[in-house]
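--- STAGE predict ---
source: upstream dedup step, 1 unique chain passed
mode: sequence only
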Amino acid sequence: MIYPLSVEDQLWDLCVVGTGPVGMALAMEFERLGRDVLVLESGGTEINPALAEASHAEIVSPQNHCPMELAVCRALGGTSWTWGGRCVPYDDIDWMPRDYVADAHWPIGHDEIRSWYKGASEYMLCGSASFAIPYKQELTHGLRFDCLERWSSEQKLILHHRPRLLGSERIKLSLNSTVTNLNLSADEQRLESLTVSVAGATRTVRARQIVLAMGGVETTRLMLHAQQSWPRSFGGVGGPLGHYYMGHLSGKIARIHFNKSVDFEDLDFTRDPSGSYRRRRLTLTAETQLKHNLLNTAFWADNPRFYDPSHRSFALSSIYLALAFRPIGKRLTSEAIRQEQIGPGSDSLAAHFRNVILGAPRGAKDLYKILRDRFLIKPKKPLFLVPHPDGQYLLTYHAEQIPDFESRIGIGREVDSFGVPRAVIDRHLSQQDIQSVIDSHDVLDEALQSNGLGRLEYLYAREALPEQVRTGSVDGFHQVGTTRMGVDPARSVVDLNLKVHGVENLYVASSSVFPTSGQANSTYLAVAFALRLADRLNA
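--- STAGE serialize ---
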């Protein structure tokens, strides 16, 4: 239910800040456990573009980090309005110590969190918590083709969960309520209150237990702001808070040529018994990664770049033209994906129109199927893959980034409209990050050929690959590492139960607590950790 904060408010038992996928799962889990919870959300029930100003950040290297206005959404539901819906758990190797990955130490093992995947799948609407299906043939040389990614049946999760959030008697939603500071006790061992801006007025919120679920960058920014007043808090100035910032390296540097024995269904999205979509990923076994000192990386077959008319596809050129016209394109997909697909410019419009003219009417059948699956059938197909008669596709990679103390989020002198210092984001890509992407492709190529499945063909000269990986790896959507989990307060911000070291009633529920980034998109695991946290706070 909507709850208006009063000037002199009560002492709440539980308070959650943020209503993105993690925050809304926390709120609903507390409701399920029979607990009342106050939930603070900076935005309203719908997206207000004017609020994006408050998330603007200084990006030191814009070539490898998206604008925060695209990565953050201030509205009930948070980034569930704009994310793609992809759900992927971490792999066993992500939790293992690896001598070639420094500062990659988890204080718990995979089995400790695996039991929460079922609940995460339910809240994320992605079907089963099983993320593997046996492949039709036994594979060797470290190749796996049984790993799955799952997709939410409603990509805008808030549209499914909003009636429950708004109708619950136990979930008290305070909208348009922006937390602007954390107020610690004199000894800095307890969070006494939150300063909240509501319609231009200031309110003070007190709670016995407070969970920050605002996303990695926003949570880190707020804690760094509070650290200015309490410099010994959160590991102290110059400590781990804000450091070890990670995302993922992703892009396309190769084309994959599958043999005829590979069925198109093995590459495309399929439906599981629940109706949710899933897709296979090509990965390498833990043993192979350890043998070659590789960072965890996943691969999948993808369409040619929409903006490159050399694909000569009626369907792809038709979709490109729709995306390039912004009033239509923004209704078809998120702005981040739209910009990625329309590419650097529109000087190839004539060639795309030529593809459409020459491809009609034969290509209209493919286009109809794409539009039907994306817009007419529920749940809609999350993405699409156009079959290639010769089994040739671009190969997308999604790779781990190592923890690096110098890769960080700080705060600057400029403040937002609420008076909170803006984030300064300096994401570093190391030579190890980049080389591992290339080495992983080499090992994958050898494994594909050894298993008779296909081969890779690089899109660029060998000497150009490192720069292509560096310039193509834009992230900012997966915000990992800046409030990392650990046992040593000098090297981590939260403990194994997500409680901030030294502060008895403050918790962080975010992918920013992960000590490593893995190959997986981070939201699914963050929700699993949130459910585990709710269980512990309830106990």
